[in-house]
Design goal:
The structure holds three protein chains of three kinds.
Chain A (H helix, E strand, L loop, with lengths): L2 H22 L10 H14 L4 H9 L1 H21 L1 H4 L1
Helix pairs in contact in A: 2-3, 3-4
Chain B lengths: L5 H23 L8 H19 L1 H7 L2 H25 L34 H28 L6
Helix pairs in contact in B: 1-2, 2-3, 2-5, 3-5, 4-5
Chain C lengths: L6 H19 L3 H22 L15 H5 L8 H32 L13
The chains are: A mainly alpha, B mainly alpha, C mainly alpha.
């Protein structure tokens, strides 16, 4: 049995377990822990003055995530420019 | 990549200002409506890429310097981090929303509940939206521009 | 409860499975990148599905309906998974650009995209 077949069998069994567990345990439309999101929805207007809850989360409550995301975008652009550095000459 | 026919170029000339206006609207109203810096930047970059496809990459590559676009991308990143450091300077911690109640701009706090779209709200969030929008526009456009120009060169064709 | 029972989760698992199949069993590099993109779409759909609340609308108060504002946190979907999905989409675009650039470089260097032929040092 080759390595690819072994990896495929392992992946398939993991996916079957994941499939059964999600189909049986979680129920769609009813999230379990919602305290943090309820706080953000109720306080987004008087704490940050923003009407949009998603922009509040992206730039204010979880600004460090956006900072890392901007870093990843910057490094991707740098990588592409470095791969094609011969083109600019 | 050579330029396409005159019909395509004319239609992209007509559609280009509307795409620009919609993209900058999405960036500017990121704190009021669905959207923000990333989405509006993607819209504007898609409009620029439409012009790139219509006119050919060699024509656009001669008009626009890649280093200048890269400078714009760095300016977006520096603006984002700079606004965050101004929060550290004026309020006490990193990413502090120091403009929200006592700033000189964007300082109105809306009433709780369903409100109309008041643009002058939300503290530093419109500034961050603008910085991230500039960053995403320059980044996506420079990626596609460099890849299109590289694929049109002779040495990349086998 | 709902008419669609757990179909979004099943769709998530199906998309991840299709992407893993493309990554594991295809020999072409572009097809493997397409598989990675399908896996990424499945993960984004999983995040969005975890944050959905039944009958919820988008958590934005600009000219929201009055009955939505009246029972406010229960009638809006969770904002944090949507923000993380936005992060994930942008990271996916960046990684996709980097992968396609590397594939162009590989094609220029080896003249093929088959993973069996580009293995090993250059002769």
């Amino acid at each position: 049995m080759s390595l690819r077949t072994t990896v495929a069998v392992v992946m398939f069994s993991v996916l079957v377990v994941f499939f059964v567990s999600t189909a049986l345990m979680l129920s769609f439309g009813d999230p379990m822990k919602t305290e943090m999101d309820d706080y953000i929805i109720m306080h987004t207007q008087n704490e940050t003055g923003t009407n949009s809850g998603i922009t509040t989360v992206v730039f204010d409550y979880r600004g460090f995530d956006t900072l890392g995301e901007a870093t990843i975008l910057f490094s991707a652009v740098s990588g592409v420019l470095m791969i094609f550095r011969r083109v600019k000459n | 990549m050579s330029q396409m026919s005159k019909i395509v170029r004319t239609l992209s000339n007509i559609a280009f200002p509307f795409i620009m206006i919609f993209g900058f609207y999405v960036i500017a109203h990121g704190h009021l409506t669905p959207g923000g810096g990333f989405q509006g930047g993607a819209v504007v970059a898609s409009g620029c890429i439409m012009l790139l496809v219509a006119y050919g990459s060699t024509w656009v590559f001669e008009k626009i310097k890649v280093s200048r676009l890269s400078v714009f991308e760095s300016l977006g990143a520096l603006g984002f981090i700079g606004v965050a450091f101004f929060g550290l300077l004026f309020g006490g911690w990193f990413f502090n929303n120091f403009l929200v109640r006592n700033g000189i701009l964007f300082n109105i706090v809306p009433k709780t509940g369903s409100t109309a779209a008041e643009f002058n709200t939300a503290g530093v969030l419109p500034l961050m939206n603008f910085a991230v929008g500039v960053k995403v526009i320059a980044g996506l456009f420079v990626i596609v521009l460099v890849m299109a120009y590289a694929s049109s060169l002779k040495e990349w064709k086998q | 409860m709902t008419m669609i029972f757990n179909i979004p989760f099943i769709a998530v698992v199906a998309m991840i499975f299709i992407g893993l199949y493309a990554v594991l069993f295809k020999r072409n590099l572009v097809k493997m990148v397409i598989g990675i993109s399908i896996i990424e779409s499945g993960v984004n759909l999983f995040l969005i599905t975890l944050g959905y609340r039944e009958g919820g609308v988008v958590p934005i108060f600009t000219s929201a309906p009055s009955e939505v504002v009246k029972n406010a946190p229960g009638s809006m979907v969770l904002p944090v998974p949507q923000a993380l999905t936005l992060t994930s989409i942008v990271i996916g675009v960046a990684v996709l650009a980097l992968m396609l650039s590397l594939i162009m470089h590989i094609y220029e260097h080896y003249g093929t995209l088959d993973v069996r032929k580009i293995r090993g040092p250059e002769e």
